[in-house]
Amino acid sequence: MRTLQKGFLLISVPVIAELLFVGMLLTVFRDSEEQTWRELRYRAETTQLAEMNTLFDKCVGVLLVYGVSRDPTFLKQYHALYQLLQEKMDRLGAMLSEKLDSRDSSRMERFNKLRKTIEGQMLSFESRAIHPPNLAHEEQLAAVNEGRLQNEKLLDETRDLFTDKSISGVPIAESLTKKRATLFGFIAFGVITNLLIAFVVLYIFAREFASRVDTLVDNARRLPRNEPLNERIKGSDELCLLDSVFHDMARELKENSERREQLMAMVSHDLRTPLLAANLSITLLQEGAGGPLEAEAVTLIDRCGRTVGRLIGLVNDILDLEKLRAGKMKIELGTYEISVPVQEAVAEVQALAKEKNISFAVNCAGSVVVDRNRIMQVLVNLLSNAIKFSESGSTIKVSTVELHDEEMIRVQIDDQGPGVPDDHKATIFLPYEQCPAGLRAKVKGTGLGLPICKFLIDLHRGTIGIEDAPVSGSRFWFTVPAAIIEEL
Q1: Coil, strand, or helix at residue 432?
Q2: Residue 243 contacts residue 216 (beta carbons within 8 Å)
Q3: Which of 12, 167, 267, 344 keeps 20 to 30 A from 30, CA to CA?
Q4: What is the C-alpha to C-alpha distance for residues 481 and 460, in angstroms, rounded to an integer?
Protein backbone atom coordinates (compact mmCIF):
# COMPACT_ATOMS: atom_id res chain seq x y z
CA MET A 1 0.00 0.00 0.00
CA ARG A 2 1.36 3.41 -1.00
CA THR A 3 2.06 6.16 1.51
CA LEU A 4 -0.74 8.32 0.09
CA GLN A 5 -3.23 5.47 0.47
CA LYS A 6 -2.10 4.81 4.05
CA GLY A 7 -2.39 8.49 4.89
CA PHE A 8 -5.86 8.67 3.35
CA LEU A 9 -6.91 5.60 5.32
CA LEU A 10 -5.58 7.03 8.59
CA ILE A 11 -7.39 10.30 7.99
CA SER A 12 -10.64 8.69 6.85
CA VAL A 13 -11.06 6.57 10.00
CA PRO A 14 -11.36 9.50 12.47
CA VAL A 15 -13.33 11.54 9.93
CA ILE A 16 -15.91 8.78 9.47
CA ALA A 17 -16.08 8.23 13.22
CA GLU A 18 -16.57 11.95 13.76
CA LEU A 19 -19.32 12.12 11.12
CA LEU A 20 -21.13 9.17 12.72
CA PHE A 21 -20.83 10.78 16.13
CA VAL A 22 -22.15 14.11 14.83
CA GLY A 23 -25.04 12.30 13.12
CA MET A 24 -25.95 10.43 16.29
CA LEU A 25 -25.59 13.60 18.33
CA LEU A 26 -27.92 15.46 15.99
CA THR A 27 -30.44 12.61 16.22
CA VAL A 28 -30.36 12.65 20.01
CA PHE A 29 -30.62 16.43 20.06
CA ARG A 30 -33.54 16.40 17.62
CA ASP A 31 -35.39 13.75 19.65
CA SER A 32 -34.74 15.66 22.86
CA GLU A 33 -35.91 18.90 21.31
CA GLU A 34 -39.04 17.24 19.90
CA GLN A 35 -39.85 15.65 23.24
CA THR A 36 -39.35 18.96 25.04
CA TRP A 37 -41.59 20.75 22.56
CA ARG A 38 -44.25 18.05 22.96
CA GLU A 39 -44.15 18.45 26.73
CA LEU A 40 -44.48 22.23 26.49
CA ARG A 41 -47.36 21.95 24.03
CA TYR A 42 -49.04 19.29 26.17
CA ARG A 43 -48.91 21.60 29.18
CA ALA A 44 -50.26 24.48 27.13
CA GLU A 45 -53.11 22.27 25.90
CA THR A 46 -53.77 21.10 29.44
CA THR A 47 -53.96 24.73 30.59
CA GLN A 48 -56.45 25.53 27.84
CA LEU A 49 -58.44 22.40 28.73
CA ALA A 50 -58.59 23.35 32.40
CA GLU A 51 -59.80 26.83 31.53
CA MET A 52 -62.35 25.37 29.08
CA ASN A 53 -63.67 22.94 31.71
CA THR A 54 -63.96 25.77 34.21
CA LEU A 55 -65.95 27.88 31.75
CA PHE A 56 -68.12 24.90 30.81
CA ASP A 57 -68.90 24.21 34.46
CA LYS A 58 -69.68 27.89 35.06
CA CYS A 59 -72.00 27.99 32.02
CA VAL A 60 -73.95 24.99 33.27
CA GLY A 61 -74.11 26.37 36.79
CA VAL A 62 -75.30 29.80 35.63
CA LEU A 63 -78.00 28.19 33.43
CA LEU A 64 -79.21 26.09 36.30
CA VAL A 65 -79.41 29.17 38.57
CA TYR A 66 -81.21 31.10 35.83
CA GLY A 67 -83.64 28.22 35.39
CA VAL A 68 -84.58 28.49 39.05
CA SER A 69 -84.39 32.27 39.59
CA ARG A 70 -85.31 33.54 36.09
CA ASP A 71 -83.04 36.54 36.72
CA PRO A 72 -81.98 38.12 33.34
CA THR A 73 -78.60 38.99 34.83
CA PHE A 74 -77.67 35.31 34.96
CA LEU A 75 -78.78 34.82 31.37
CA LYS A 76 -76.55 37.70 30.26
CA GLN A 77 -73.69 36.25 32.31
CA TYR A 78 -74.27 32.88 30.66
CA HIS A 79 -73.96 34.33 27.15
CA ALA A 80 -70.65 36.04 28.07
CA LEU A 81 -69.27 32.81 29.57
CA TYR A 82 -70.40 30.79 26.57
CA GLN A 83 -68.62 33.23 24.25
CA LEU A 84 -65.40 32.75 26.23
CA LEU A 85 -65.94 28.98 26.07
CA GLN A 86 -66.19 29.17 22.27
CA GLU A 87 -62.94 31.15 22.11
CA LYS A 88 -61.17 28.60 24.34
CA MET A 89 -62.34 25.74 22.13
CA ASP A 90 -61.21 27.62 19.02
CA ARG A 91 -57.77 28.19 20.53
CA LEU A 92 -57.47 24.55 21.60
CA GLY A 93 -58.52 23.44 18.13
CA ALA A 94 -55.83 25.65 16.60
CA MET A 95 -53.22 24.00 18.85
CA LEU A 96 -54.34 20.53 17.84
CA SER A 97 -54.19 21.48 14.16
CA GLU A 98 -50.37 21.77 14.44
CA LYS A 99 -49.59 18.09 13.92
CA LEU A 100 -46.38 16.59 15.21
CA ASP A 101 -47.13 12.95 14.38
CA SER A 102 -50.00 10.58 13.53
CA ARG A 103 -51.41 10.68 17.09
CA ASP A 104 -52.38 14.34 16.64
CA SER A 105 -54.76 13.47 13.75
CA SER A 106 -56.72 11.06 15.96
CA ARG A 107 -56.84 13.58 18.80
CA MET A 108 -58.11 16.28 16.42
CA GLU A 109 -60.93 14.02 15.23
CA ARG A 110 -61.90 13.18 18.81
CA PHE A 111 -61.75 16.87 19.76
CA ASN A 112 -64.07 17.87 16.89
CA LYS A 113 -66.52 15.17 17.92
CA LEU A 114 -66.28 16.25 21.54
CA ARG A 115 -66.80 19.89 20.61
CA LYS A 116 -69.99 19.05 18.78
CA THR A 117 -71.15 17.11 21.83
CA ILE A 118 -70.35 20.05 24.14
CA GLU A 119 -72.13 22.51 21.90
CA GLY A 120 -75.14 20.18 21.62
CA GLN A 121 -75.17 19.65 25.36
CA MET A 122 -75.01 23.39 25.98
CA LEU A 123 -77.92 23.96 23.57
CA SER A 124 -79.90 21.34 25.45
CA PHE A 125 -79.11 22.96 28.81
CA GLU A 126 -79.89 26.37 27.39
CA SER A 127 -83.26 25.22 26.00
CA ARG A 128 -84.29 23.65 29.29
CA ALA A 129 -83.21 26.70 31.28
CA ILE A 130 -84.83 29.34 29.05
CA HIS A 131 -87.97 27.37 28.17
CA PRO A 132 -88.43 25.02 31.11
CA PRO A 133 -91.25 22.44 30.93
CA ASN A 134 -94.02 22.41 33.55
CA LEU A 135 -92.53 20.03 36.07
CA ALA A 136 -92.99 19.51 39.73
CA HIS A 137 -90.28 20.64 42.13
CA GLU A 138 -88.97 17.11 42.58
CA GLU A 139 -88.76 16.64 38.80
CA GLN A 140 -86.84 19.92 38.40
CA LEU A 141 -84.28 18.78 40.98
CA ALA A 142 -83.94 15.46 39.17
CA ALA A 143 -83.35 17.33 35.90
CA VAL A 144 -80.65 19.47 37.57
CA ASN A 145 -78.91 16.36 38.93
CA GLU A 146 -79.09 14.70 35.54
CA GLY A 147 -77.52 17.82 34.00
CA ARG A 148 -74.68 17.74 36.52
CA LEU A 149 -74.03 14.05 35.84
CA GLN A 150 -73.91 14.68 32.12
CA ASN A 151 -71.56 17.62 32.76
CA GLU A 152 -69.20 15.47 34.83
CA LYS A 153 -69.28 12.71 32.18
CA LEU A 154 -68.45 15.23 29.49
CA LEU A 155 -65.54 16.57 31.55
CA ASP A 156 -64.21 13.01 31.99
CA GLU A 157 -64.30 12.51 28.22
CA THR A 158 -62.43 15.78 27.76
CA ARG A 159 -59.71 14.77 30.22
CA ASP A 160 -59.39 11.37 28.53
CA LEU A 161 -58.85 13.14 25.21
CA PHE A 162 -55.71 14.87 26.51
CA THR A 163 -54.16 11.97 28.39
CA ASP A 164 -50.87 11.45 26.43
CA LYS A 165 -49.13 8.29 27.65
CA SER A 166 -45.95 9.21 25.73
CA ILE A 167 -45.37 12.16 28.10
CA SER A 168 -44.01 11.35 31.53
CA GLY A 169 -45.93 14.04 33.32
CA VAL A 170 -42.93 15.04 35.40
CA PRO A 171 -42.12 18.75 35.84
CA ILE A 172 -40.47 20.40 32.86
CA ALA A 173 -37.34 21.41 34.80
CA GLU A 174 -36.80 17.83 35.97
CA SER A 175 -37.42 16.48 32.47
CA LEU A 176 -34.95 18.92 30.93
CA THR A 177 -32.36 18.03 33.57
CA LYS A 178 -32.65 14.34 32.68
CA LYS A 179 -32.40 15.06 28.97
CA ARG A 180 -29.41 17.34 29.52
CA ALA A 181 -27.68 14.66 31.57
CA THR A 182 -28.34 12.11 28.80
CA LEU A 183 -27.00 14.47 26.18
CA PHE A 184 -23.86 15.26 28.21
CA GLY A 185 -23.28 11.55 28.76
CA PHE A 186 -23.52 10.93 25.05
CA ILE A 187 -21.09 13.79 24.35
CA ALA A 188 -18.64 12.42 26.93
CA PHE A 189 -18.86 9.00 25.31
CA GLY A 190 -18.17 10.54 21.90
CA VAL A 191 -15.18 12.53 23.19
CA ILE A 192 -13.65 9.47 24.87
CA THR A 193 -14.22 7.43 21.72
CA ASN A 194 -12.58 10.11 19.56
CA LEU A 195 -9.61 10.29 21.92
CA LEU A 196 -9.17 6.53 21.74
CA ILE A 197 -9.34 6.66 17.94
CA ALA A 198 -6.81 9.52 17.93
CA PHE A 199 -4.40 7.52 20.11
CA VAL A 200 -4.79 4.48 17.86
CA VAL A 201 -4.15 6.59 14.76
CA LEU A 202 -1.15 8.20 16.48
CA TYR A 203 0.25 4.78 17.35
CA ILE A 204 -0.20 3.57 13.78
CA PHE A 205 1.39 6.75 12.43
CA ALA A 206 4.35 6.41 14.80
CA ARG A 207 4.81 2.78 13.83
CA GLU A 208 4.22 3.16 10.10
CA PHE A 209 5.74 6.57 9.40
CA ALA A 210 7.60 8.37 12.20
CA SER A 211 9.95 5.51 13.14
CA ARG A 212 10.71 4.74 9.51
CA VAL A 213 11.34 8.39 8.68
CA ASP A 214 13.76 8.52 11.63
CA THR A 215 15.52 5.49 10.15
CA LEU A 216 15.78 7.23 6.78
CA VAL A 217 17.17 10.39 8.38
CA ASP A 218 19.76 8.34 10.27
CA ASN A 219 20.71 6.52 7.05
CA ALA A 220 21.07 9.86 5.26
CA ARG A 221 23.53 10.94 7.97
CA ARG A 222 25.44 7.66 7.86
CA LEU A 223 25.76 7.57 4.08
CA PRO A 224 28.26 10.46 3.58
CA ARG A 225 30.31 9.19 6.55
CA ASN A 226 30.60 5.71 4.99
CA GLU A 227 29.07 4.17 8.11
CA PRO A 228 26.98 0.96 7.95
CA LEU A 229 23.28 1.70 7.34
CA ASN A 230 20.38 0.41 9.41
CA GLU A 231 18.50 -2.69 8.34
CA ARG A 232 16.26 -2.33 5.31
CA ILE A 233 12.74 -1.08 5.97
CA LYS A 234 10.10 -3.68 5.22
CA GLY A 235 7.13 -2.87 3.00
CA SER A 236 6.34 -1.64 -0.50
CA ASP A 237 5.58 2.07 -0.09
CA GLU A 238 7.65 5.09 -1.08
CA LEU A 239 9.61 5.10 2.21
CA CYS A 240 10.75 1.53 1.55
CA LEU A 241 11.75 2.43 -2.00
CA LEU A 242 13.74 5.41 -0.74
CA ASP A 243 15.45 3.23 1.85
CA SER A 244 16.33 0.75 -0.90
CA VAL A 245 17.88 3.60 -2.89
CA PHE A 246 19.99 4.53 0.15
CA HIS A 247 21.21 0.95 0.52
CA ASP A 248 21.98 0.72 -3.21
CA MET A 249 23.90 4.00 -3.01
CA ALA A 250 25.85 2.74 0.02
CA ARG A 251 26.70 -0.48 -1.82
CA GLU A 252 27.84 1.42 -4.92
CA LEU A 253 29.87 3.87 -2.81
CA LYS A 254 31.56 1.00 -1.06
CA GLU A 255 32.37 -0.67 -4.36
CA ASN A 256 33.67 2.61 -5.81
CA SER A 257 35.76 3.18 -2.69
CA GLU A 258 37.28 -0.27 -3.00
CA ARG A 259 38.03 0.30 -6.70
CA ARG A 260 39.56 3.70 -5.88
CA GLU A 261 41.77 2.18 -3.21
CA GLN A 262 42.90 -0.46 -5.69
CA LEU A 263 43.61 2.25 -8.25
CA MET A 264 45.58 4.33 -5.75
CA ALA A 265 47.57 1.26 -4.74
CA MET A 266 48.32 0.63 -8.39
CA VAL A 267 49.31 4.27 -8.94
CA SER A 268 51.57 4.20 -5.91
CA HIS A 269 53.18 0.85 -6.70
CA ASP A 270 53.11 0.51 -10.47
CA LEU A 271 53.63 4.18 -11.43
CA ARG A 272 55.29 6.09 -8.64
CA THR A 273 57.95 3.51 -7.83
CA PRO A 274 59.18 3.10 -11.44
CA LEU A 275 59.13 6.88 -11.95
CA LEU A 276 61.23 7.42 -8.85
CA ALA A 277 63.67 4.81 -10.09
CA ALA A 278 63.83 6.45 -13.52
CA ASN A 279 64.31 9.86 -11.95
CA LEU A 280 67.19 8.49 -9.85
CA SER A 281 68.82 7.01 -12.95
CA ILE A 282 68.48 10.33 -14.81
CA THR A 283 70.02 12.15 -11.87
CA LEU A 284 72.98 9.75 -11.86
CA LEU A 285 73.49 10.24 -15.58
CA GLN A 286 73.36 14.02 -15.16
CA GLU A 287 76.01 13.73 -12.44
CA GLY A 288 78.29 11.74 -14.79
CA ALA A 289 77.89 8.31 -13.24
CA GLY A 290 77.83 6.77 -16.74
CA GLY A 291 80.76 8.75 -18.04
CA PRO A 292 81.01 11.91 -20.12
CA LEU A 293 77.99 12.72 -22.34
CA GLU A 294 77.78 14.65 -25.54
CA ALA A 295 75.95 17.98 -25.54
CA GLU A 296 72.97 16.57 -27.45
CA ALA A 297 72.68 13.68 -25.00
CA VAL A 298 72.77 16.07 -22.05
CA THR A 299 69.90 18.07 -23.60
CA LEU A 300 67.83 14.93 -24.12
CA ILE A 301 68.48 13.70 -20.57
CA ASP A 302 67.53 17.10 -19.09
CA ARG A 303 64.30 17.08 -21.09
CA CYS A 304 63.56 13.54 -19.96
CA GLY A 305 64.28 14.56 -16.36
CA ARG A 306 61.78 17.41 -16.52
CA THR A 307 59.11 15.10 -17.99
CA VAL A 308 59.68 12.49 -15.32
CA GLY A 309 59.58 15.20 -12.66
CA ARG A 310 56.21 16.40 -13.94
CA LEU A 311 54.85 12.85 -13.89
CA ILE A 312 56.12 12.34 -10.34
CA GLY A 313 54.44 15.61 -9.32
CA LEU A 314 51.18 14.52 -10.97
CA VAL A 315 51.24 11.14 -9.21
CA ASN A 316 51.97 12.83 -5.88
CA ASP A 317 49.11 15.26 -6.43
CA ILE A 318 46.69 12.41 -7.16
CA LEU A 319 47.78 10.51 -4.06
CA ASP A 320 47.62 13.64 -1.89
CA LEU A 321 44.14 14.51 -3.17
CA GLU A 322 42.89 10.99 -2.44
CA LYS A 323 44.29 11.13 1.09
CA LEU A 324 42.69 14.51 1.67
CA ARG A 325 39.31 13.32 0.37
CA ALA A 326 39.44 10.23 2.58
CA GLY A 327 40.46 12.32 5.61
CA LYS A 328 43.63 10.28 6.06
CA MET A 329 46.11 13.15 5.83
CA LYS A 330 47.28 14.51 9.16
CA ILE A 331 49.01 17.80 9.83
CA GLU A 332 51.67 18.61 12.40
CA LEU A 333 51.14 22.13 13.68
CA GLY A 334 53.88 24.42 14.87
CA THR A 335 54.43 28.14 15.41
CA TYR A 336 56.43 29.86 12.66
CA GLU A 337 57.04 33.28 11.21
CA ILE A 338 54.99 33.33 8.02
CA SER A 339 57.95 34.83 6.18
CA VAL A 340 59.91 31.57 6.59
CA PRO A 341 57.70 29.26 4.46
CA VAL A 342 57.07 32.16 2.04
CA GLN A 343 60.82 32.65 1.41
CA GLU A 344 61.34 28.89 1.08
CA ALA A 345 58.51 28.63 -1.46
CA VAL A 346 59.87 31.60 -3.45
CA ALA A 347 63.30 29.96 -3.52
CA GLU A 348 61.79 26.69 -4.77
CA VAL A 349 60.06 28.33 -7.75
CA GLN A 350 62.87 30.77 -8.47
CA ALA A 351 64.24 28.71 -11.35
CA LEU A 352 60.82 28.66 -13.03
CA ALA A 353 60.49 32.42 -12.56
CA LYS A 354 63.89 33.12 -14.13
CA GLU A 355 62.80 31.43 -17.35
CA LYS A 356 60.20 34.22 -17.77
CA ASN A 357 62.25 36.96 -16.11
CA ILE A 358 59.64 37.30 -13.32
CA SER A 359 60.57 38.91 -9.99
CA PHE A 360 58.99 38.73 -6.54
CA ALA A 361 58.02 41.49 -4.10
CA VAL A 362 57.61 39.93 -0.66
CA ASN A 363 56.22 41.82 2.31
CA CYS A 364 55.16 39.29 4.97
CA ALA A 365 55.12 39.47 8.75
CA GLY A 366 53.43 37.72 11.63
CA SER A 367 53.51 34.42 13.48
CA VAL A 368 51.21 31.58 12.45
CA VAL A 369 50.28 28.12 13.70
CA VAL A 370 50.62 25.82 10.67
CA ASP A 371 52.11 22.65 9.30
CA ARG A 372 55.21 24.13 7.70
CA ASN A 373 55.57 21.57 4.92
CA ARG A 374 51.89 21.67 3.94
CA ILE A 375 51.78 25.48 3.89
CA MET A 376 54.90 25.42 1.71
CA GLN A 377 53.04 23.05 -0.61
CA VAL A 378 50.15 25.53 -0.82
CA LEU A 379 52.50 28.46 -1.46
CA VAL A 380 54.43 26.58 -4.14
CA ASN A 381 51.19 25.66 -5.93
CA LEU A 382 49.89 29.23 -5.86
CA LEU A 383 53.25 30.76 -6.86
CA SER A 384 53.66 28.26 -9.69
CA ASN A 385 50.22 29.16 -11.04
CA ALA A 386 51.07 32.87 -10.78
CA ILE A 387 54.28 32.34 -12.76
CA LYS A 388 52.50 30.28 -15.42
CA PHE A 389 49.86 32.94 -16.10
CA SER A 390 51.98 36.10 -15.64
CA GLU A 391 53.59 37.88 -18.56
CA SER A 392 57.37 37.85 -18.93
CA GLY A 393 59.12 40.62 -17.05
CA SER A 394 56.23 41.12 -14.57
CA THR A 395 56.31 41.12 -10.76
CA ILE A 396 54.45 38.81 -8.37
CA LYS A 397 53.59 40.36 -5.01
CA VAL A 398 53.32 38.30 -1.82
CA SER A 399 51.92 40.11 1.24
CA THR A 400 50.11 39.43 4.51
CA VAL A 401 47.28 41.12 6.41
CA GLU A 402 46.56 40.56 10.09
CA LEU A 403 42.85 39.93 10.83
CA HIS A 404 42.76 40.78 14.52
CA ASP A 405 39.01 40.20 15.00
CA GLU A 406 39.26 36.70 13.58
CA GLU A 407 42.73 35.96 15.01
CA MET A 408 43.88 34.95 11.53
CA ILE A 409 46.58 36.05 9.08
CA ARG A 410 45.70 36.45 5.44
CA VAL A 411 48.35 35.64 2.82
CA GLN A 412 47.86 37.30 -0.59
CA ILE A 413 49.54 36.51 -3.93
CA ASP A 414 48.97 39.07 -6.71
CA ASP A 415 49.96 38.21 -10.27
CA GLN A 416 49.84 40.29 -13.45
CA GLY A 417 48.19 37.71 -15.63
CA PRO A 418 44.94 37.89 -17.64
CA GLY A 419 42.77 37.23 -14.56
CA VAL A 420 40.04 34.64 -14.01
CA PRO A 421 36.52 35.19 -15.43
CA ASP A 422 33.80 35.60 -12.83
CA ASP A 423 31.96 32.45 -13.94
CA HIS A 424 35.09 30.37 -13.22
CA LYS A 425 35.81 31.79 -9.77
CA ALA A 426 33.12 29.70 -8.08
CA THR A 427 34.42 26.40 -9.52
CA ILE A 428 38.15 26.96 -9.77
CA PHE A 429 38.86 25.07 -6.51
CA LEU A 430 36.98 21.95 -7.64
CA PRO A 431 39.01 18.90 -8.74
CA TYR A 432 40.04 18.84 -12.41
CA GLU A 433 38.68 22.34 -13.07
CA GLN A 434 41.06 24.19 -15.35
CA CYS A 435 41.52 27.63 -16.77
CA PRO A 436 39.35 28.88 -19.66
CA ALA A 437 39.89 27.33 -23.06
CA GLY A 438 41.71 30.41 -24.38
CA LEU A 439 44.50 30.04 -21.81
CA ARG A 440 44.50 26.25 -21.67
CA ALA A 441 46.43 26.03 -24.93
CA LYS A 442 49.21 28.24 -23.56
CA VAL A 443 49.39 26.85 -20.01
CA LYS A 444 49.07 23.15 -19.30
CA GLY A 445 47.87 21.76 -15.98
CA THR A 446 45.97 18.90 -14.35
CA GLY A 447 43.41 20.86 -12.32
CA LEU A 448 44.58 19.25 -9.05
CA GLY A 449 46.78 21.96 -7.51
CA LEU A 450 44.07 24.35 -6.34
CA PRO A 451 41.76 21.61 -4.92
CA ILE A 452 44.75 20.29 -2.92
CA CYS A 453 45.39 23.82 -1.65
CA LYS A 454 41.77 24.12 -0.54
CA PHE A 455 41.84 20.79 1.31
CA LEU A 456 45.07 21.73 3.07
CA ILE A 457 43.77 25.15 4.11
CA ASP A 458 40.55 23.53 5.36
CA LEU A 459 42.69 21.25 7.54
CA HIS A 460 44.14 24.43 9.10
CA ARG A 461 40.57 25.70 9.68
CA GLY A 462 41.22 28.58 7.30
CA THR A 463 39.64 29.76 4.06
CA ILE A 464 40.94 30.23 0.53
CA GLY A 465 39.61 32.35 -2.33
CA ILE A 466 40.24 34.38 -5.42
CA GLU A 467 39.49 37.98 -6.38
CA ASP A 468 40.65 40.54 -8.88
CA ALA A 469 43.99 42.16 -8.11
CA PRO A 470 43.92 45.93 -7.45
CA VAL A 471 45.67 46.80 -10.75
CA SER A 472 45.43 43.79 -13.06
CA GLY A 473 45.51 40.02 -12.88
CA SER A 474 44.25 37.86 -10.01
CA ARG A 475 44.75 37.75 -6.28
CA PHE A 476 44.75 34.33 -4.62
CA TRP A 477 44.53 34.48 -0.85
CA PHE A 478 44.19 32.16 2.12
CA THR A 479 43.92 32.55 5.88
CA VAL A 480 45.65 30.56 8.62
CA PRO A 481 45.47 30.86 12.43
CA ALA A 482 47.67 33.53 13.94
CA ALA A 483 49.88 32.67 16.87
CA ILE A 484 48.59 34.37 20.03
CA ILE A 485 51.43 35.86 22.06
CA GLU A 486 50.51 36.69 25.64
CA GLU A 487 51.80 40.05 26.77
CA LEU A 488 53.73 40.07 30.05
Answers
A1: coil
A2: yes
A3: 12
A4: 7
Percent of the chain past pLDDT 90, that is, above it, reads 13
Q: What share of the chain is helix, strand, coil (3-state, %, to 5)?
A: 70, 10, 25
- Using only C-alpha atoms, the chain has a radius of gyration, in whole angstroms, of 56
Q: What is the mean pLDDT of residues 47-69?
A: 80
Helix axes 172-205, 3-69, angle to 10 degrees: 180
pLDDT band of 82, cuts 50, 70, 90: confident
DSSP states of 212-242: HHHHHHHHHHHGGGTPPPPPPPPSSSHHHHH
Q: What are phi and psi of 134, to 5 degrees?
A: -75, 95
Average pLDDT over residues 173-198: 73
Containing 349, the helix (H) or strand (E) segment is: none
pLDDT tens digit sequence for 383-434: 998 998 888 889 999 999 999 888 899 999 999 888 888 878 878 888 766 6
In the chain, DSSP finds a helix count (H) and a strand count (E) of: 15, 7
Q: DSSP secondary structure string, 277-341?
A: HHHHHHHHHHTTTT----HHHHHHHHHHHHHHHHHHHHHHHHHHHHHHHHT------EEEETHHH
Distances (CA, A) of 213 to 1, 220, 241: 17, 10, 12
| Spatial separation of the C-alpha atoms in residues 269 and 62, rounded to whole Å | 138
Q: How far apart are CA 243 and CA 255, in angstroms?
A: 18
pLDDT at 18 over 90: no
Confidence of residue 200 (pLDDT cuts 50, 70, 90): confident
Q: CA-CA distance, 169 to 410, in Å (whole number)?
A: 98
